[in-house]
Structures are given as structure tokens and as C-alpha cells.
């Protein structure tokens, strides 16, 4: 297959880190990325080029282009961490096949992306493109963090930003494994849907005395793990309200708070601890057999409907500079970019 | 041996917790304890009574009588967690012998104390009373936390309140095992003595830009463990200045700060974590063979001079209400109570 010389891509405008912490909101992408025609990437040894069919937009992508993620930006390079597409170049038996992938070498918000051959994930034919485009960051994170919950032996866990795509995946896992999820959300309007999905209890931070709601829920369910995508003061308060042995596992920073540790003594006397989760590290440290096994589980769950992808909107690549922000502003569901349009 | 019916003891005036966090200072003991004549404790099954020869005064004792420790007070009971004395009652082959002990059932700031037989630690004849009276809380904590340092594989560790008795024990352990101790102290006057003892570097918080001192020390030594008795904002700042993989191990709360986690993302991207250490839990969870082995090490280190106990003063039990505060106010060294005087 002969590839074109150039492609349309959303490229990063800045190098390195911004030194700011403004959270994952994006009212206007133009300070961070621009739509440009750039050369199609050429695969080196062990690399593959993928013609992108659909790319995901995750909070980590927004953190990244704003220079607020744990990896430095490279000006002129396409953004976008994950997507699905057809392998069009590279020394791999997957040539011509549909794969999900994490774009290690050239981002997915582009007509073509590039990554290591070892990271290509073959997709079942019955897996939809929206499920396939987002099967890595959120679903693999859900599986990996739920492994932590299971290994802890807890009968219950707490998760915040629970109305997010990842939150819903975690609630469904808790439901299916009999480990009671306690969901923390901002708006009361989200509570019923999460209860219907399988949340054993819902704490609404926008309502009166959310900490009293938490005390009641924690007394009933005795959660031991707090999966935290927010990192605000209320999360710290939740952690200190949890029973002995609680672990606060932070994996994202939706808030710009610097939470205070008001009861540090609980770490001593109640065996509590605070740690982080990063999918990239998990993939390096986990038993290698766990990863393909996890992708088989992920695809099976989507195809059978025990997981679903809520789509906030699919924005054509050509319209991202004007259209992406409004899809991201929707309170629920996931945004995608379609590089073929 | 016939025991008297009553004894002189410093008894606690309050039950439970105070709900305050005022730190381990004690200007006046009279709001918390009183000198009284009370019945000598009677041993139940598995318990021993010890005629106390010398009792230690540790920061945890002060936290405890103020109602700010992780265990509830019991009004009318003698205070004092550790000491040395002769076993005078109880079904044990150690009857008549000198033992160090942690007073589980009736405190050491009294002529007689009571604890479980299983917790009696026989003392070598060549171990001095001041070393024996304080061989549990500080030395065993030092051994246990230094096990954490060794198991982490770190080439260096950081400790604050480094001029304390426990701090000096840890510095000597680092020196003797070739793991560079970085000592954090408040006053420049303490620095030379700690360097002479074996500190690879000293950060003086009372001097200009202590965080810059820390950056230089961390760059040179790459510490991975932070042993923290203070829990203030500067400790949090130190933690975030440490290299990847750093662990903040809190074991005390000399400060009343509620430290802010300004860079929570380091837990995700730099594999850092925050945890607590409590000797009581360590003793329950550690391989039981480690404890007698640790006490053999402790006594050997004191007898051979690789550890020394710096004595701030020995206060007669009869004079504690007026004399204890002034000994505790000394900047260095450990306070003791002599119940025989």
C-alpha cells in the first residue's frame, strides 16, 4: 500500500510542561493545538503506521496538550493518545488488520498515527469502532484498578468522577463481581443512572452535607479502596472518613486543589496509605500474560453489552478547532475525533 | 515476695481522646496527670507485675496523656509506656529478673507496673538502666524503620527531628550499614554533632532556603525513604523534592500543620507514596523471630557504644509535677522518671 506524503493532523504548539495546573477543561483548543498538513510518519524498526478510523479524547489528552500531564509535549507532533485504525505499514502480521493502539510515536488526532508493533491490539470484528477507539485508556485502567480492588479483599470501594466513562466501567465491574461500588458525583441528576448501573450508594457533592452521606455509606459498606480521579479537598475528607486500612489511589487530577492532610495520624494508627496509579507503569510491572487476557475481557464485555460506551459526540478532524470544545462541555459521555472526515 | 497494697503513681485525669492537636510540648503536667497513692496492680492470667526501676518519657507519652495519641486514655490509670524493673509477681521464669517492658496493663510512671508476660524483655547485666528503660519505643522503632530502609534498596534516606534520641539511633544505623542519612533539624547548632555521628548531609530548617539545601542533598544522595516524625508542610515539600519512587513514612506528629499535597500527580507519575509506621502494628505483623533478634542487636549496640542514650535528666517520681517540664524543655536528650525516689 502506498501512503500519501502528507496528512492532516492536530499538532501541538508547545514543547515540554506549562507549569500550570488548570484541570482538564478545554474551552478553546487554539492556544494548544492547530490543524496542519504534516508529513505522514515513517516507521522505524519495530514500528507500525496506522490509518486512524476513530480517535478518543480522554482527560489525559487535554492535560497533555495543556502541558499539565506527566509527559513532556513535543511541538509539531500530533496529539491524541489512543484510537482504532488499520495497520498500513510496518513489519507485522497485523498489516491490513483493524487494531486498537496507544500512539507512542505519533498521535491519533491525525489521518495516520505511529506506534510500537508490540502495542497493537487486534480487534474482534463484532467490536464497534467507538468501543475499539477507547478500549485502551479507560477500559484497561478500569480492569487494572479493579485488580487492585479485588486483591485488597475489600467488599466495597469508593470512586469519584463516577459519572465519567471510566467511572461507569468500574461500577459495572463492581456490580458483576459483587464488590459494592460507592459512587461520588457532583450532580443529583447523575445519581439514579449510576444506581441503575449498579452503584450500591451514591454521594452527591452538590447536595447538603456530602460528608454525612459518605459516613452513612461507609458505615453500611466498609469500603477499603478509594479510586480518585479528582484529588480535591473533599477526596481527602472522604479518605479520612473511611474505615481502617483504607487506601487512597489517585489516578487523575480533575481538581486544582492542593488537598490538606488534616488527620495524618490515621496513616500511623489506622494503617491507611496514599498512592498513585498510572496505566503506563502498571503495564510495565504487571505479569505480561495479564494484558492480552484483559483485552479479551474488555472486548467480550463491550460486545455482550456488560459495558457500553456513552458517546457525547464524534467531531470530524476538519472541524475540531471549532467543534471539539462544545462536545467536551457535555456533562456525560465521551468525545471522539474522526480523522476520515 | 509480698507486695505493698498501695503505691505512688502519676495517674491520668481524663478518659478517651481530647480532640485537640497541640503537639508533644508539655509546659505543665497538672492538667493531665496527678501524683496519687493507688492500689498496686494484681496480675491476671498471663500478666506480670514489675517493680519499676526507671521509666522513660517519650513524645508518645506526652501525646497520650494529652489525649492526642491513637489510643484512648483511662482516667485513674498510671501513665508511662515503657521502663525497666524487676519482675515481682506473675507466673513466669523471669520472676526476680531485670526486664525492659512496654506497660500494656498499668503504666510505668509508678512504683509498680503491669504487662503481659509475653512482652517481657530480659536485660543483659552489662546494659545500663537508662539504656534498658528506653530500649523498646525508640530503639525497636529505629530497627523496624531501618528494616524498611534496607528492604527498599535505597542508598540514602531522609529523617527529620533528627536531633531526637530516635533520630540519632537511625543516623548511627545508616552510618554502620553504608546507607547515607540526610538529617533534617531546626537549629544550626545541632548540625555538627549529627555530622560527627554519621549524617551524610544536614538540612537546617531554621536557616535560609532549607528547600534549596534539600535539593542539593537529594541530588547528591538520591534518598528514597523519608522517615517523618513531624508531619508539617516542610515535610510535604521535602517529599515532593525527592526523586522518583520516594516513600513518605510518617510515624509522629510533632507539628500541628495539616500539610498540603501540592503535587499529588507525583504519586501517579513518579511512583511516590505516603504511608504510616506504628511500632504496635509492626510487632503484630513482623516475623516473630525478628523481635528477640532485634533486642539482641539493640542491647549489643548499647553495650558496645555504637548507640548511646543522651540523658536530659532523671526526675524523681515524687518531683515530677514540678520538675518534669523543665527537663523536657531541654533541646536534646531524653527524660526519665525514677519511681524509687
Write structural notes for this entry:
2 copies of one chain form a homodimer. By secondary structure, chain A is an alpha/beta fold. Chain A has 2 domains: 6-134 and 309-338, Alpha-Beta Complex (Quinone Oxidoreductase, Chain A, domain 1), CATH 3.90.180; 145-281, NAD(P)-binding Rossmann-like Domain (Rossmann fold). Chain A has 11 helices and 15 strands. The first copy, chain A, has helices at 59-65, 129-133, 137-152, 165-177, 191-197, 210-221, 233-241, 265-269, 279-285, 290-304, 320-328; strands at 6-12, 33-39, 47-57, 82-89, 98-102, 112-116, 121-122, 156-159, 180-185, 201-204, 225-228, 247-250, 273-276, 311-316, 334-338. In chain A, the strands form 3 sheets. In chain A, strands 3, 4, 5, 6, 7, 14 and 15 form a 7-stranded mixed sheet that branches. The first copy, chain A, has a 6-stranded parallel sheet with strand order 10-9-8-11-12-13, with helices on both faces. In chain A, helix 3 (137-152) packs parallel to helix 4, helix 3 (137-152) crosses helix 10 (290-304) and helix 6 runs parallel beside helix 7 (233-241).
- Report, as a whole number of angstroms, the end-to-end distance of chain A: 21 Å
What is the helical fraction of chain A, as a range of percent? 25-40%
Note poorly predicted spans of chain A.
none
Summed up, the helix count of chain A is 11
What is the count of distinct domains of chain A? Answer: 2
CATH topology-level fold name of the largest domain in chain A? Quinone Oxidoreductase, Chain A, domain 1
The CATH class of the largest domain in chain A is identified as Alpha Beta
Number of strands of chain A: 15
Q: Largest sheet of chain A, described in full?
A: 7 strands, mixed
Pfam families (chains A, B): ADH_N (PF08240), ADH_zinc_N (PF00107)
Keywords (chains A, B): NADP, Oxidoreductase
GO molecular function (chains A, B): NADPH binding; oxidoreductase activity, acting on NAD(P)H
Protein name (chains A, B): Oxidoreductase, zinc-binding dehydrogenase family
Amino acid at each position: 500500500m502506498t501512503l500519501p506524503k502528507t496528512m492532516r493532523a492536530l499538532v501541538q504548539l508547545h514543547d515540554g510542561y506549562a507549569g500550570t495546573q488548570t484541570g482538564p477543561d478545554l474551552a478553546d483548543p487554539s492556544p494548544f493545538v492547530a490543524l496542519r498538513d504534516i508529513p505522514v510518519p515513517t516507521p522505524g524498526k519495530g514500528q507500525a503506521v496506522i490509518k486512524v478510523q476513530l480517535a478518543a479524547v480522554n482527560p489525559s489528552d487535554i492535560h497533555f496538550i495543556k502541558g499539565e500531564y506527566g509527559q513532556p509535549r513535543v511541538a509539531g507532533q500530533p496529539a491524541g493518545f489512543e484510537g482504532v485504525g488499520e495497520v498500513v505499514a510496518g513489519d507485522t502480521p497485523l498489516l491490513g488488520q483493524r487494531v486498537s493502539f496507544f500512539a507512542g510515536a505519533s498521535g491519533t488526532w491525525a489521518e495516520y498515527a505511529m506506534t510500537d508493533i508490540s502495542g497493537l491490539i487486534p480487534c474482534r470484528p463484532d467490536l464497534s469502532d467507538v468501543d475499539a477507539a477507547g478500549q485502551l485508556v479507560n477500559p484497561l485502567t478500569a480492569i487494572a484498578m479493579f485488580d487492585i480492588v479485588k486483591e485488597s479483599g475489600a467488599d466495597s470501594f469508593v470512586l469519584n468522577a463516577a459519572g465519567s466513562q471510566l467511572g461507569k466501567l468500574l461500577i459495572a465491574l463492581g456490580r458483576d463481581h459483587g464488590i459494592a461500588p460507592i459512587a461520588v458525583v457532583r450532580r443529583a441528576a447523575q445519581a439514579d443512572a449510576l444506581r441503575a448501573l449498579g452503584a450500591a450508594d451514591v454521594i452527591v457533592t452538590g447536595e447538603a452535607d456530602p460528608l454525612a452521606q459518605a459516613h452513612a455509606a461507609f458505615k453500611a459498606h466498609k469500603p477499603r479502596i478509594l479510586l480518585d480521579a479528582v484529588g480535591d479537598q473533599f477526596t481527602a475528607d472522604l479518605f479520612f472518613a473511611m474505615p481502617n486500612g483504607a487506601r487512597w489511589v489517585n489516578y487523575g487530577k480533575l481538581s486544582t486543589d492542593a488537598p490538606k492532610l488534616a488527620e495524618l495520624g490515621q496513616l500511623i494508627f489506622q494503617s491507611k496509605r496514599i498512592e498513585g496509579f498510572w496505566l503506563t507503569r502498571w503495564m510495565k510491572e504487571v505479569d505480561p500474560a495479564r494484558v492480552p487476557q484483559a483485552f479479551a475481557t474488555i472486548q467480550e464485555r463491550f460486545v455482550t453489552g456488560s459495558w457500553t460506551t456513552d458517546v457525547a459526540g464524534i467531531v470530524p478532524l476538519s472541524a475540531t478547532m471549532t467543534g471539539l470544545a462544545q462536545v467536551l462541555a457535555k456533562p456525560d459521555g465521551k468525545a471522539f475525533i474522526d480523522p476520515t472526515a
